[in-house]
Design a protein that fits this description.
elongated, Rossmann fold, 5-stranded parallel beta sheet, 23-stranded mixed beta sheet, about 850 residues, Leucine-rich repeat, LRR (right-handed beta-alpha superhelix)
């Protein structure tokens, strides 16, 4: 997908006449063709014994059959692509291909018993454009007229057969037989040598591409390629050719005006440094694309290359490079260099500005070394600031730990950045802010969420981003309060595959109004209970939810499916729900069935009827389609079961709700009055041993023995000055009383409420210092309540009363609680008089210091 997007990007942005970066990358690195899915099983061909499968459009057919497929299949389908593979066909005869006059692409591959193709067998395939006869190891000979009739054939592939003599093959490629031939691939055969007149039978051909790599060649005559006047692309890599021999045929081609554009010298065994003499010859040719991949140049220093003004693509992948000189690729040597491929080496990063300023594409992927000697990749500050023309940057498969706001500084025109399969766990704020025109960003398979949350500030500036891949990044959720997708309003493709997401919200999706493809497969999604896409107003053309934990369809899910299917210009929407854990029973599916019958549109009904996702349970429905279960609901007594389930649910729910409410009420009451309850429990505990305590105190004839303090002082902090004077008067004069004062005697770290209860229980008297401030304080009111409980509990008919009241100043009646009013009316209290202080302190000492008995 990255390759396709890049091609489209550069094609549409710069026009057909401009430089095509991706075309050069494709020519340099032959990417394998992806096989299409073939879900349709065609009927068994009785004539041949072959089994054949097709795609849903029936335009691609693949036939196979091993020991049963002995003849060429005779199918009635008029497809444009036919592939016959892994059969035991030995001969192909005239007339066996007469059914396939509409074929444009034919592959006969890996048929290891095929030895003979009768001349004229392809006579009827006048529309054929591509033909592959590859990996048929028993095929050692082709007749001169084998390809008769292929007047429109443009590409002929003969890879990995049993051919040993190239001279015998070239007669079959005569331009009269193959007038449209442009590409010929003879790789992986054993030719040993190419002689002077080997290609003479092809004189006058329009061939532009020739692949003879990995053919065990050790000799090529300097004049051998001269008949191929239109040759532009030559692959001779992975052969045993020395640099002098290569230089000789290049000189001759140049002298005879053969304008070679691309030369592949990969895997030729060059060591230590590129062959200087050969590079100087190449520098004087018309070659624009040069591959030196898979050779061995550990150090690429500044003078490794001579000036090469025509080179536009330079492939140095897998050359074991450990370092490159800062001026190795400087513009003065490579003024037209557009594509530089340095992937698969041991380069530790980009540590100096050694890149050509006019580069469009830079591939430095897979520079990670090996498990024994790993390489940790690093990009220095502002290293790329001189590469302002760069459009494509590939840093995938590197051990990059983190990227910062200076990493991509200078890449103002960058369109694609590939950072997949790294070790990135930190993205600094504003990292992508310099890349304001970035359209494709691949961060797949990085541990992004290991040590941080993904935040919007990290993706600031990506207003033109169209494709984002966060596959397998360990993401568990997205934060709606800091929505990263608000930074990407132009996003059309979002890949969130193989993360740990179990839900996503409509708020997260709302900024993605242009989203076309959303991949949520291989996560932990369950059926959602609120509409996502309907509420967000987002209707992707493709929604992939394969291999999640969806067990049933909620109403919200069906509404979202219906919305996506019915959205404008979305008639061909794809919603993939394969490999989920659908439970096919009345509980899970009956509601879905009812909704579809009552509210389902034609589009959503068609979707369910034609769907292929399967049930996972119960056993009787395992591996059968959900659509089959839904069509069988009427005959399964689900309506009766549904009514009984509602009644049973009501029977069990009402008592359970009453019990839960009662428990919650008790819990709330206990929590609210927990301090009082603890104190009452303490008093109850004292009551059990009250008689014992009283007898012990009488025997000791000392009431104070059971108390830590003479008095607990309850006061308001605003009266602190009076309390300090009280401490001085009572603790420094006989009888030297011990007071409990909160600021001084409460244990540090304890709860205030617990400390008050504990100190009251350890004090002989409770001294309430009542003032206007005291009456207004909530804490003081609470202490007063506890003191009253304490007094009432100890009341036993004796003269001992633990409660002592002191009033300072006037107290507003409106602040007095019922308890305070009652105490002030029923108890004698001391009133502070600043004109008779000695008398006041004397009376207070007497009250607190007297000894009483029960």
């Amino acid at each position: 997908m990255i390759i396709v997007l890049l091609w489209l990007l550069l094609w549409t942005k710069h026009g057909r006449g401009s430089y095509d970066c991706q075309e050069m990358i494709n020519n340099a690195q032959a990417t394998p063709r992806a096989d299409v899915e073939l879900p349709v099983q065609l009927e068994n061909d009785k004539y041949s014994g072959c089994w054949c499968r097709s795609n849903e459009e029936y335009d691609i057919i693949v036939c196979f059959g091993s020991y049963e497929c002995k003849k060429f299949p005779q199918l009635r389908n008029h497809s444009s692509v036919l592939r016959v593979r892994t059969t035991v066909i030995e001969r192909i005869l005239i007339g066996e291909l007469v059914r396939y006059v509409n074929l444009r692409h034919l592959d006969l591959e890996a048929n290891h018993r095929l030895t003979y193709i009768e001349p004229g067998s392809f006579r009827y395939l006048t529309k054929l454009e591509q033909l592959s006869l590859s990996y048929n190891t028993a095929l050692q000979f082709i007749d001169n007229n084998t390809f008769e009739g292929l007047v429109n054939l443009r590409s002929l592939t003969l890879i990995g057969n049993g051919f040993t003599d190239l001279d015998q093959l070239t007669f079959a490629f005569h331009p009269i037989l193959l007038p449209s031939l442009r590409a010929l691939n003879l790789a992986e055969n054993t030719f040993s040598a190419i002689k002077k007149y080997t290609f003479s039978p092809m004189r006058g051909t329009n061939l532009t591409k020739l692949y003879i790599n990995l053919c065990r060649l050790d000799d090529i005559h300097p004049l051998s390629f001269l008949p191929l006047k239109n040759l532009e692309v030559l692959h001779v890599g992975e052969n045993d050719l020395n640099s002098s021999l290569i230089g000789n045929f290049l000189i001759e081609m140049m002298a005879h005006n053969i304008s070679l554009k691309s030369l592949d010298l990969s895997g030729m065994g060059f060591r230590k440094q590129p062959p200087r003499h050969l590079l100087e010859i190449i520098a004087n040719t018309t070659i624009k694309r040069l591959s030196l991949a898979q050779n061995q140049f550990e150090v690429i220093d500044d003078d490794a290359f001579p000036p090469m003004v025509n080179i536009e693509l330079l492939d140095l992948r897998k050359v074991m490079a450990m370092t490159t000189g800062p001026n190795a690729f400087e513009p003065i040597k490579f003024p037209n260099l557009k594509v530089l491929l340095l992937g698969g080496n041991n380069l530790p990063g980009i540590h100096s500005n050694h890149l050509s300023s006019q580069l469009l594409c830079l591939d430095m992927s897979n520079n990670k070394g090996n498990l024994v000697t790993p390489v940790y990749y690093e990009i220095d500050r502002d290293t790329l600031i001189g590469s302002s023309g760069l459009r494509y940057l590939n840093l995938a498969f590197n051990r990059i730990k983190s990227i910062y706001n200076y990493t991509f500084r200078g890449l103002e025109k960058i369109r694609i950045i590939n950072l997949e399969n790294g070790t990135i766990f930190y993205i600094g704020p504003g990292t992508f802010k310099p890349t304001k025109h970035l359209e494709v960003l691949n961060l797949a398979n990085n541990p992004l969420s290991v040590n941080q949350n993904i935040t919007s500030v990290q993706f600031e500036g990506l207003t033109e981003l169209k494709s984002l891949s966060l596959q397998n990044c360990g993401i568990k959720k997205f934060n709606d309060d800091d929505n990263i997708f608000e930074m990407m309003p132009s996003l059309t493709k979002l890949i969130l595959k193989n993360n740990q997401l179990y839900y996503i919200t409509a708020e997260t999706l709302k900024p993605l109004k242009f989203l076309e493809i959303l991949d949520l497969s291989e996560n932990l999604f369950i059926a959602w209970w609120n509409p996502l896409f309907l509420d967000a107003g987002v209707a992707p053309r493709q929604l992939l939810l394969t291999n999640n934990k969806i067990s049933h369809f909620s109403i919200s899910m069906i509404q979202d499916i219906s919305y996506i299917l019915e959205s404008n210009e979305n008639s061909s929407a794809i919603i993939d729900l394969m490999a989920n854990v659908f439970v096919c029973d009345c509980i899970s599916m009956y509601t879905t069935y009812l909704w579809l019958q009552v509210n389902g549109s034609t589009a959503v009904k068609t979707f369910f009827e034609s769907s292929n996702f399967q049930c996972s349970s119960p056993d009787i429905w395992e591996d059968r389609k959900v659509s089959q279960y839904l069509s069988s609901v009427k005959s399964m007594h689900c309506p009766v079961y549904h009514k009984i389930s509602k009644i049973m649910l009501l029977v069990w729910t009402i008592p359970s709700l009453i019990l839960i409410i009662a428990v919650l009420v008790v819990v709330v009451i206990v929590y609210k009055y927990r301090i009082y309850i603890r104190y009452w429990l303490f008093l109850a505990k004292m009551a059990l041993g009250r008689t014992f305590i009283r007898k012990s105190l009488k025997a000791d004839n000392n009431l104070n023995k059971g108390y830590k303090y003479d008095a607990f002082v309850s006061y308001c902090f605003d009266d602190r000055d009076f309390i300090l004077e009280m401490i001085t008067q009572l603790e420094t004069n006989p009888p030297y009383l011990k007071l409990c004062v909160s600021e001084r005697d409460f244990e540090v770290g304890s709860f205030i409420s617990e400390a008050i209860v504990s100190c009251i229980n350890e004090s002989k008297y409770i001294l309430l210092v009542i003032s206007n401030n005291f009456a207004k304080s909530q804490w003081c009111r609470w202490e007063t309540q506890l003191a009253e409980y304490h007094r009432l509990f100890l009341e036993d008919g004796t003269t001992y009363d633990p409660l002592v009241l002191v009033r300072i100043g006037d107290v507003d009646n409106k602040y007095l609680t019922p308890t305070l009013k009652y105490l002030l009316k029923t108890k004698i209290y001391l009133t502070w008089n600043e004109y008779h202080t000695e008398n006041f302190w004397k009376k207070l000492r007497t009250v607190l210091g007297k000894k009483s008995s029960h």
